[in-house]
Design brief:
single chain; 110 residues; mainly alpha; 56% helix
Length: 110
């Protein structure tokens, strides 16, 4: 398990990069996974990482598991790497934006 100071920093970094609320993320996961005539059950919508991020958003820091911490590091690293790209994302870059939204980060959100 991660020590308390490292966990505090990770918790803050995670909530900094995950700028979508749990409601926004849940809605996005349902929309992104919906097909023309079907929509998945809410608990089965989206990629596993997105589902895990949603579960983390609904937890208290004291309830985190080792798997949660691993996903939090992965999300922070992914969003940080994407943010280091020279060009700021635009509305036209839907693939990149949608990929980030799947893990709770909307680059167009202030």
């Amino acid at each position: 398990m991660t020590d308390a100071l490292e966990l505090d920093a990770l918790w803050q970094d995670f909530h900094r990069v995950v700028n979508m609320t749990s409601q926004e993320l849940a809605a996005w996961l349902r929309v992104s996974d919906a097909e023309e005539f079907t929509e998945p059950l809410p608990e089965h919508a989206g990629e596993p990482t997105g589902q895990h991020v949603l579960a983390i958003l609904q937890k208290r820091r004291t309830d985190l598991t080792d798997d949660d911490i691993e996903v939090m590091y992965e999300v922070v690293d992914t969003v940080t790497a994407e943010a280091d790209v020279e060009n700021e994302p635009t509305a036209e870059e839907t693939g990149r934006r949608h990929r980030l939204m799947t893990i709770g980060h909307d680059p167009l959100k202030p």
